[in-house]
TrEMBL record:
GO molecular-function term, one example from the UniProt record: oxidoreductase activity
Family membership noted in the UniProt record: Belongs to the short-chain dehydrogenases/reductases (SDR) family.
Stretches assigned to coiled coil: none
EC number(s) from the headed UniProt entry: 1.-.-.-
Protein name, UniProt field: SDR family NAD(P)-dependent oxidoreductase
Organism: Terrilactibacillus laevilacticus
Length: 265
């Protein structure tokens, strides 16, 4: 079933050069999809494209793009549409975070984070939605975060950006009802990826939450399952998903009794 579902589908993946973006590209290629890789690093994209073609007998293409440069987003997506005539799935995966107390965070650094995590995602989505509406089908997947539901100390700006992603995702899902376009939010906990080279240069946070770290391949697999099943939203791992539910139902109690668990950065 899944093989037929993805066979020949044009799938655009932002942030595709490493982490779960890279894993999703490989797994989708294995299922017969045509991944279009988007990121800033040409060398990493070229390496991944060659790997997909040679090792997985798949097809792939790539475009160099910094999604925070909004005027470039439309240009790149227009080039993709011109070449392939369609985009079946968009996975908004590009994003990064820095962990600092709010008072220690400059407005400039917060703007940079929002430009990638929020405005870049918005620009990519606006670029594909008109074409998906003409096709009368499509799927947009936004990689948000558990942090978009449960904020923690030293992640105010990052959590705010992911709250924005979830708000946008829920709104456009309702706006696009009846168009044939599905919209999914993926909310993973911490993942073992290069994300933490920027977010946690000291390595202290990763050390503190080692047992909760998700493997990129497993997250990518769950994203693909969510597309197959047209899920509205996925929280992972299960333990953090349960904690998120408890926090949303009992926020005061959760902050009082689980404060130390939330303060690991």
């Amino acid at each position: 079933m899944s093989q037929r579902l993805f066979e020949g589908k044009v799938v655009v993946i932002t942030g595709a050069s490493s982490g779960i973006g890279r894993e999703m590209a490989i797994q989708l290629a294995q299922k017969g999809a045509y991944p279009i890789l988007i990121a800033r690093s040409q060398s990493k994209l070229e390496t991944l494209k060659k790997e997909i073609i040679s090792q997985y007998q798949g097809e792939a293409d790539y475009y160099i793009l910094d999604v925070s440069i909004l005027e470039e987003v439309e240009k790149v997506f227009n080039m993709i549409i011109k070449k392939y005539q369609r985009i079946d799935i968009l996975i908004n995966n590009a994003g990064y975070g820095t962990f600092d107390y709010f008072l220690d965070s400059s407005i400039e650094s917060i703007k940079k984070m929002f430009n990638v995590n929020v405005f870049g995602l918005m620009a990519c989505s606006q670029s594909v939605i008109p074409y998906m509406m003409k096709q009368k089908e499509g799927h947009i997947v936004n990689i948000a975060s558990i942090a978009g539901k449960v904020a923690t100390p030293k992640s105010a700006a990052y959590a705010a950006s992911k709250h924005a992603v979830l708000g946008l995702t829920n709104a456009i899902r309702m706006e696009l009802k009846g168009t044939g376009i599905n919209v999914t939010a993926i909310n993973p906990g911490p993942i073992r990826t290069p994300f933490f080279r920027t977010a946690d240069p000291s390595g202290e946070y990763v050390k503190n939450i080692e047992r909760f770290l998700l493997e990129p391949a497993k997250v990518a697999h769950q994203v693909i399952l969510a597309i197959e099943k047209r899920k509205r939203e996925v929280d992972m791992p299960r333990l953090l998903a349960l904690g998120t539910w408890l926090y949303q139902c009992f926020p005061g109690i959760s902050e009082k009794f689980a404060g130390k668990l939330l303060d690991k950065k």
